[in-house]
Design goal:
Helices cover 37% and strands 21% of the residues. The protein has five helices and eight strands, in the order βααββββαβββαα.
């Protein structure tokens, strides 16, 4: 259930390059989901574009004005907490830069691009008003519930549960996988 919000300066994308970028970023989202190129996986692959005036981008205290700056992008990638390790996140940074490079025809090193990955705590996602979790998402997108990525996530949440218990947090505070609900001290 990762989501990408692509903010870009006016003139950075025309209709054709925007379509290329949307398709490439959808591929990135599917790869982020563990390769779940299924109807369920595609339902969770959201890309949103926000075009901004060139002078709305300020980099290093300077307004991004003038043809010499070229295409400019700020990409927010929102993922479930505990879903990606450092290697996975580094792959996402690289894939996003490659997608923007392909769509704009500029080398990734020449495009002002900032990619920010934000993790949303477990229990803070919903679709159509119904909370969803990593566990239910795996089923919906067609990934095995005992697959490598979800096993890694469970270990992350088990460690989080132990830390919460050690700090004497209330057992009903949320932020854990539904299968771990109840008293975190038992985990």
């Amino acid at each position: 259930m990762p989501v990408m919000n692509v903010r870009y300066a006016v003139g950075s994308l025309d209709a054709a390059s925007k379509a290329v970028l949307a398709n490439r970023l959808t591929e990135v989202l599917i790869q982020m989901e563990g390769g779940a190129n299924t109807p369920g996986g595609r339902d969770f692959a959201w890309v949103r574009f926000d075009e901004s005036a060139r002078d709305d981008f300020w980099i290093g205290g300077q307004s991004n004005v003038g043809a010499e700056i070229g295409p400019t992008f700020l990409v927010d990638v929102t993922i479930p907490e505990g879903y990606m390790n450092r290697t996975h996140k580094n792959e996402v940074h690289s894939w996003v830069a490659s997608a923007i490079s392909e769509a704009t025809g500029h080398a990734a090193s020449d495009v002002p691009l900032l990619t920010v990955i934000t993790e949303v705590p477990e229990g803070n996602w919903s679709t159509r008003g119904v909370p969803i979790s990593l566990e239910t998402t795996a089923v919906v997108v067609g990934l095995p519930s005992d697959g490598e990525r979800l096993r890694w996530s469970r270990k992350y949440f088990e460690a989080k549960a132990r830390a919460l218990a050690a700090a004497d947090y209330p057992s009903d505070m949320g932020g854990l996988l539904p299968s771990m609900s109840g008293d975190v001290r038992k985990t």
